[in-house]
Every structure is written in structure tokens, then in C-alpha cells.
Specification:
The structure holds two protein chains of two kinds. Chain A is of the alpha/beta class. Helix content of chain A is 25%, strand content 27%. Chain A folds into two domains: 9-142 and 152-204, HUPs (Rossmann fold), CATH 3.40.50; 231-351, Rossmann fold, CATH 3.40.50. Chain A has a seven-stranded parallel beta sheet, with helices on both faces. In chain A, strands 15-14-16-17-18 form a five-stranded parallel beta sheet. A three-stranded antiparallel beta sheet of chain A has the order 8-9-10, with helices on one face. The termini of chain A are far apart. By secondary structure, chain B is α/β, with parallel strands linked by helices. Chain B has six helices and 13 strands. In chain B, helix 2 packs across helix 5 and helix 3 (94-105) crosses helix 4. The longest helix of chain B is centred in the N-terminal third of the chain and has 17 residues, at 36-52. The chains are: A alpha/beta, B alpha/beta. At the A-B interface, helix 4, helix 5, strand 7, strand 9 and strand 10 of A face helix 3, helix 4, strand 7, strand 8 and strand 9 of B. Strand 13 of chain A pairs antiparallel with strand 9 (162-169) of chain B, so a sheet runs across the interface.
Chain lengths: 356, 261
């Protein structure tokens, strides 16, 4: 099995640079890839080093310039027909081999349905720690405050994450092993402005892929057939909860969203009831959103929901229950019947916007 | 066919979260439940027992009182329980937890290992894939459906934008989503069985091929630098309007004031 012990200073010093996993699906880069480059660049500047994107797939060379445009200094490309669709084994072999060959000090992976499978497998293979679902990354000292008799290490990656469904936050360090690995929650880090024509140094690397027992067979690839726009990109979200009452009644939220040029999203209860698809779910087990305006309509505000929307600029809550916890995070809370208020609000905003 | 389901006893967040004065969780004051994703994994295993006569063993790592969750699983229909407990295993992060559970699994026989995708206390989703890596098993995470096909499993694997149908040869490891199924209740007969069921306890010395540098707090590469309960943004305004019209003019007024429309 993989064994690990604390690395000595000499070994630790061999690891340099910030690497990010550039996730692509069907040769389209995922939004998290650009977010990780933006965050990786910020960390790299503090460490006086560079950010390298690790691009893994089949016939993906065409994506390199896009990674450069968003700030990647270097791109390591692992291109092989075995890597056409995501599978744990060939991808873990690709990323672990890159880590062993190029020895990054920091390795960031998106906390997506791919990254949360790839990250743990790779961390176990290269024998280092992994911190999951980080929402804040900093360079700092560990221990944070000096402790007599214990070495305080500088320039450590401090990884902050919510735990317990968002009830607590913890900041984690990985002081004695490299790379310092984290998966990062999508929608939290900022991507850089696109620089047209930017170029990155490209390194092609192929560790060789020989199928073994760990290569699973893909029998079918199914896409959720929908033209639903990603709620993470919306500037205005009109979000409904169990209080909306039925799938049909979401019509009044859709009308409000349309008037505002926004989109409808929902809480987990709505997805569990089958009223809306999972893609529209905000919260701990759904998506993290930070629109400029978020309406929480008929949403009680369970901590798991709040964890996914509390960074919104303005939160308006409408709920008939005066004690609903959503009012603890709302900027503007209205206690009342959503069935009466929402349609009237739609009409009023229609008139207001027409007058502008 | 032998199936081992790894389960975890977790505090029930639904009953509210209690904190100690120093900001750490007061676990003793909170009710515990079987972690929901694990329970779905157990249900999936019990269906394999119903359909194919699979033998289902549940395994947990924790304090001695974690035996409760094994008894609950046996009352639902599991055949045997294994408790991995030892003082030196405490304070483990996901690396040290996965090396420990892998060490226990090496001592046991299995065709299929099922874990939950993630536990509601840590939400990391790391331990399942890490166990598979230590044991050299194929892993399929985020399982929405599990079927048997000869000496292989066919699993519907959820992604953000759809799913894959995957086939893996056993032995392999699957991580289950709570959406997988509706777990059954304990039965009176099962509860009776649970009282008499034999629970095997494994300690540090029973773990196979596990180095001391890879267990417990000392064997954990990740260290807590800071922990606190979350500082939330304070509540804003709340009104109880006399009429829907009042509610509307309040909201429209505020949105205009903030230039939000």
C-alpha cells in the first residue's frame, strides 16, 4: 500500500509551483478550470512562482490557448485516447504521474462530481493530504500562532472549508507533505479577465496507459437533455422552496424571473418533490450561487440551503412563517402569502421597469 | 457473494447543532444517526441479499458506542457487524481513516465494498475512493443505481450534467448517493436478532499491512489550523405588511434604493 511519513525539509523544497486541474468534459473546459487558474495565479504571485494548468483528455490541444487567455503560465497536456471520457483510473494515473514528475507545491482540483472522485484517488496514490470543498485559500503560517518547541512553517497553504452542513468552518494545513492538495467549491473563486492572444508554455507528457482491473467499462454516456442555463451564471435568481406548494405554482416565480431578466432556482425540497430538476438546486448538495439579487420565496432557510446562497449581494425573502431562519440572512424580509405577493410584485416591477 | 458496507455514526444536524464554549462541536449533546448516504448503501446491499442471497457485513470505525449503528444495521437486515476501535486510531483525517479501514478490510472477505458518498459531518467524499486506492480496487463514485451482471456490477454514475452507465469487475468499491433508494425500516425480528448478533471488534493489532505512521492523529497529513462556528451575516430588516400591496411597495422601494432593478 501507499505509505506516507512526514517529508524532511529537503524533500519538501523539491516541490514548487501551483498546479490546477483543468477539467474538461466533451472537450469543453468547465467554468471551475478558469476559477482555479484565477485563484492559482493569486496564490502563485504570493509565492513568487507560476500557475500551471494540467489538461487531461483526448485531442484536447485546442483548449490550451483558452487556458492561457485566462491566466495559465504553463499548460501540461496529457493526451491519450484512453482519456476520452472521464474515468477514475486513467485520469488518476495521468494526474498522479504529472505530480510525481513535476512536483507541484500546491495542487488544486474542482470540487465537482469529477474532482471529488479524482482528488481523493490521486491524494491517496501520491500519499499526501487533501482538504475537500474549500471556499477560501490563503498563504500563511502553520501553526497560525507560534507554539514554543514547535517549528512554525511559513508559506503554507491554509485551506478553509465549511463542515457540518455549513455550521462550522475549519482551516486546514498540510505542513509535512507535498503537494498541498485541495478541492475547491465551484462558483466561489474569481476567474481573471480574459486576455486575448495570451500564450502559455506547453509541455506534452504521456505516462503511458495500460488498462488493468481498475479501468471500468463505459456502457453508456447520457447527458441531461436540457437547455437550462446554469444558475451559477445568473445575475438575478428567483428561488422557490416547498412553500411554493406545487410544480404548477412555480409559474408565478417564472413570471417574476422573466420580468427581471433572471432565472428560477430552487431548494432541495423542491428537487426531492420532483417539481424541478437537480440542476436548479441551490445549497450544500446543489450549487453555490452569488447573484446580485436573490429572491428566497417559500424557502424556510435550512442551513444547507443558506450555505449555497448567503454570498448573494441582496437577499429578499418572502415567507409566511415569521420565524423562518431565512429571515436571519435576508436583507429584506417580508412575512406574508407568496401567492398574493409574488404576482402583485411581478405586475409592479413590470410597470416600474417599463417606466425606466 | 459477500458485501461489506462501511457505515458511520454521525450527529443528527436536523436536531440543531450544539457548540462547546470553545467553538468546537458538542457531539455528546447531539443525537446520532446512521449517515444517510451510508444507509442508502446498506439498503442497496440488502437488496442484493434479497435478490441473490448476498451476505451483508457492516463495518464502522469509531468509539465503542458506534456499535449502536451496527446493531441498527443488523436490525434492518445485515448479517454481521465489525467495529474497528482503538484509542490510537483517534483524531484521524481522511487519509488515516482510509488506511485504517483498508487495513480492516484486508482481514475480511468481500466481493463488493459499498460506502456512502460522504458523511454529513465532514462532507468530504474522500474516504470511499481512498479506501479503493489503498486496496487497488476499481472505484465507482456517486452511484444512483446498482445491478449485478455475473461477476461484474453495472452502476449508474451521476455527474453534474448527466450520468454514465459503468461496468466494473468485482471485487470493486462503490460509493452510494442517498438518492439511490428509500432505506427500509428495522423489523421487530431484526431488532431481536440485533440484540443477539455477534459484533466483531478489531483493534490496531488486527489491521493488516498498516504502518503506524499512517493511523490516528499522528498519521494524518492534514492538520487543523483554526476552527470556529461560522460567523454569519446578520439579519437585515423584516416587515409584516398589512396587505400584499404594502409588501410589494416595500420590496420595489428597497430594490430601487439599491439600484437592483
Amino acid at each position: 500500500m501507499n505509505k506516507m511519513g512526514a517529508m524532511n525539509a529537503e524533500e519538501l523544497a523539491k516541490y514548487k509551483g501551483v498546479f490546477v486541474f483543468a477539467q474538461q468534459v466533451d472537450n469543453q473546459l468547465s467554468g471551475i478550470s478558469f476559477e482555479l487558474i484565477g485563484e492559482g495565479k493569486r496564490l502563485a504571485e504570493q509565492l513568487d512562482t507560476q500557475v500551471t494548468a494540467v489538461l487531461i483528455g483526448s485531442e484536447v490541444a485546442g483548449l490550451v490557448d483558452e487556458l492561457a487567455a485566462y491566466g495559465a503560465d504553463k499548460v501540461i497536456v496529457v493526451d491519450d485516447p484512453e482519456l476520452k471520457n472521464y474515468r477514475t483510473e486513467p485520469y488518476a494515473h495521468a494526474l498522479a504521474s504529472v505530480i510525481n514528475e513535476y512536483k507541484p507545491e500546491i495542487m488544486l482540483v474542482g470540487a465537482t462530481a469529477i474532482g471529488r472522485d479524482l482528488g481523493p484517488t490521486v491524494s491517496a496514490r501520491v500519499a499526501t493530504g487533501l482538504t475537500a470543498d474549500c471556499t477560501l485559500l490563503e498563504i500563511g503560517d502553520f501553526p497560525v500562532n507560534p507554539i514554543p518547541g514547535q517549528e512554525q512553517k511559513h508559506n503554507q497553504l491554509l485551506m478553509t472549508r465549511p463542515a457540518f452542513g455549513g455550521n462550522t468552518i475549519a482551516t486546514i494545513a498540510c505542513p509535512d507533505n507535498r503537494p498541498q492538495m485541495a478541492t475547491v467549491r465551484p462558483g466561489v473563486m474569481q476567474k481573471l479577465d480574459r486576455v486575448e492572444g495570451a500564450k502559455a508554455e506547453v509541455i506534452n507528457y504521456n505516462p503511458g496507459f495500460t488498462p488493468n482491473n481498475k479501468y471500468v467499462e463505459i456502457l453508456e454516456v447520457a447527458k441531461a437533455v436540457s437547455d437550462i442555463k446554469d444558475i451559477m451564471d445568473a445575475k438575478i435568481l428567483v428561488s422557490g422552496g416547498r412553500g411554493v406548494g406545487s410544480a404548477e405554482n412555480f409559474k408565478i416565480l417564472e413570471e417574476l424571473a422573466e420580468v427581471l431578466g433572471g432565472q428560477v432556482s430552487c431548494s432541495r425540497a423542491v428537487v426531492d418533490s420532483g417539481w424541478k430538476p437537480k440542476e436548479l438546486q441551490v445549497g450544500q448538495t446543489g450549487k453555490t450561487v452569488r447573484p446580485s439579487l436573490y429572491f428566497a420565496i417559500g424557502i424556510s432557510g435550512a442551513i444547507q440551503h443558506v450555505a449555497g446562497m448567503e454570498e448573494s449581494d441582496i437577499i429578499v425573502a418572502i415567507n409566511k412563517d415569521e420565524d423562518a431562519p431565512i429571515f436571519d440572512v435576508a436583507d429584506y424580509g417580508v412575512v406574508g402569502d407568496l401567492n398574493k405577493i409574488v404576482p402583485a410584485l411581478t405586475e409592479a416591477l413590470k410597470a416600474e421597469i417599463a417606466a425606466k | 457473494m459477500k458485501v461489506i458496507v462501511c457505515i458511520k455514526q454521525v450527529p443528527d444536524t436536523k436536531g440543531g447543532v450544539q457548540f462547546n464554549p470553545d467553538g468546537t462541536l458538542n457531539r455528546a449533546a447531539m443525537l446520532t444517526i446512521m449517515n444517510p448516504d451510508d444507509k442508502a448503501g446498506l439498503e442497496a446491499a440488502l437488496r442484493l441479499k434479497d435478490q441473490y442471497g448476498a451476505e451483508v457485513t457492516v463495518l464502522t470505525m469509531g468509539l465503542p458506542k458506534a456499535a449502536d449503528v451496527l446493531q441498527e444495521a443488523i436490525a434492518m437486515g445485515a448479517d454481521k457487524g465489525v467495529l474497528v476501535t482503538d484509542r490510537v486510531l483517534g483524531g484521524a483525517d481522511t487519509w488515516a481513516t482510509s488506511t485504517t479501514i483498508a487495513g480492516a478490510l484486508r482481514k475480511l472477505e468481500y466481493d463488493l465494498v459499498i460506502t456512502g458518498r460522504q458523511a454529513i459531518d465532514g462532507d468530504t467524499a474522500q474516504v470511499g475512493p481512498q479506501i479503493a486506492e489503498h486496496l487497488g480496487l476499481p472505484v465507482i463514485s456517486y452511484a444512483q443505481e446498482i445491478k449485478l451482471d455475473g461477476d461484474s456490477v453495472i452502476v449508474k454514475r451521476q455527474y453534474d450534467d448527466g450520468y454514465h452507465m459503468l461496468k466494473a469487475k468485482m471485487p470493486c468499491l462503490i460509493t452510494a448517493l442517498s438518492e439511490l433508494n428509500e432505506p427500509r425500516y428495522m423489523t421487530p425480528g431484526g431488532i431481536f436478532d440485533a440484540v443477539n448478533a455477534e459484533i466483531t471488534t478489531l483493534g490496531r493489532a488486527d489491521l493488516v499491512d498498516v504502518d503506524d505512521s499512517n493511523i490516528g492523529l499522528k498519521g494524518s497529513p492534514t492538520k487543523i489550523a483554526r476552527a470556529s462556528d461560522k460567523v454569519r451575516k446578520g439579519a437585515g430588516e423584516k416587515i409584516v405588511p398589512d396587505s400584499p400591496e404594502d409588501a410589494v411597495s416595500y420590496i420595489v422601494g428597497k430594490l430601487n434604493e439599491k439600484h437592483a432593478i
